[in-house]
Design a protein that fits this description.
Layout lengths: L2 H15 L4 E6 L4 H7 L3 E6 L8 E7 L1
Antiparallel strand pairs: 1-3, 2-3
């Protein structure tokens, strides 16, 4: 339905109007990483999972 994409686009529009030059975020869900990358975010770090821990990814996007 595109709700996630529209939400991110609105958040980015607000950030731009406030003069921000970009954004970074982190996610625990392995399914979310491809979603953000599809929207132009690039991976810049991560923490591996293991022992019941879920991997954590850090992504960024410059405007």
């Amino acid at each position: 339905m595109g709700f996630g994409t529209r939400l991110i686009e609105e958040a980015e529009a607000i950030a731009r109007t406030r003069g921000y030059i970009g954004v970074w975020l982190d996610t625990f869900e392995f399914q979310a990483r491809p979603f953000y990358e599809k929207l132009g975010y690039a991976l810049f770090g991560g923490l591996e999972g293991g022992g019941g821990a879920v991997p954590r990814y850090f992504l960024k996007k410059k405007f």
